[in-house]
């Protein structure tokens, strides 16, 4: 496969960036940067959660529409709540972090870069996307994510439809990312969630509804 000069330059840039980040990631990936990203972007999961809610509402009436909203929740959720915060921990500039996140997730040839990001996510966020299996599945979620993306393309470009089982799979994958993996990483950062998506760092919330809350209010 031949490359245009632009593509060659881009490949070279990504290779350089990979080498640079690989060193840095191994030596000193800083949890504080990840923590501060979540702290500064407290509603980063809101849009993806909106799509997930829409998918749940549609699952009984329109399988294909539910599948599409699940695919949106899955892809936006993965990008905004898990991958972009990690890239930001390495790159430190939001616009560049967004650009790299999109390139790494959308281009299959950036496997080694993606592996690096997912390795950091495993070590620092406590979530392993490559090996994690959902409760009712025998396959790693990464394979299921790939299948959902392929099917999404067939719906979008060839007007295919899906079965209720396929819609259920996509919904299960999206739910796992947003309702299981995202909260795991947030908890690992010492933060917690309200309404499923809003990030909070107020330690007093832990005592809500307990006798200690009354004491805290009185002091
Ligand atoms: Zn709170």
Mean pLDDT: 87
Q: Which strand order do you get reading across the main beta sheet?
A: 1-2
Beginning-to-end CA distance, first to last residue:
70 Å
Structural class: mainly alpha
Strand runs, count = 2
- Helix fraction bin: over 70%
Q: Identify low-pLDDT runs.
A: none
Order of SSEs: HHHHHHHHEEH
Ligands bound to this protein structure:
zinc ion
Shape call: flat
Total count of domains: 1
Q: What does the radius of gyration come to?
A: 19 Å
Count the DSSP helices: 9
Strand proportion = under 5%
Report on the structure:
With 219 residues, this protein is an all-alpha fold. The protein has one domain. The chain has helices at 5-28, 31-40, 46-58, 63-91, 94-106, 111-125, 141-158, 164-188, 211-218, and strands spanning 192-194, 198-200. The protein has a two-stranded antiparallel sheet. Strand 1 (192-194) and strand 2 (198-200) form a beta hairpin. Helix 7 (141-158) crosses helix 8 (164-188). The longest helix has 29 residues, at 63-91. The relative contact order is 0.14. The model has no long low-confidence stretch (mean pLDDT 87). The structure holds zinc ion. Zinc ion binds at residues 192, 194, 200, 202, 205.
């Amino acid at each position: 496969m031949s490359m245009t000069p632009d593509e060659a330059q881009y490949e070279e840039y990504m290779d350089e960036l990979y080498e640079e980040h690989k060193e840095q990631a191994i030596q000193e990936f800083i949890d504080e940067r990840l923590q501060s990203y979540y702290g500064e972007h407290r509603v980063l999961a809101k849009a993806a959660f909106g799509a997930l809610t829409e998918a749940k509402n549609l699952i009984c009436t329109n399988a294909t529409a539910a599948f599409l909203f699940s695919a949106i929740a899955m892809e936006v959720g993965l990008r905004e709540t898990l991958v972009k915060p990690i890239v930001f921990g390495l790159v430190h500039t939001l616009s560049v972090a967004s650009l790299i996140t999109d390139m790494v997730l959308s281009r299959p040839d950036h496997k080694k870069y993606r592996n690096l990001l997912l390795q950091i996510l495993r070590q620092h966020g406590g979530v392993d996307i490559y090996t994690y299996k959902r409760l009712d599945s025998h396959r790693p979620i990464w394979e299921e994510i790939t299948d959902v993306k392929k099917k999404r393309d067939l719906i979008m470009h060839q007007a295919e439809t899906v079965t209720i089982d396929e819609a259920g799979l996509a919904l299960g994958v999206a739910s796992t990312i947003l309702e299981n993996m995202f909260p795991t990483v947030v908890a690992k950062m010492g933060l917690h969630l309200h309404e499923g998506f809003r990030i909070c760092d107020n330690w007093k919330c832990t005592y809500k509804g307990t006798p200690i809350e009354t004491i805290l209010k009185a002091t």
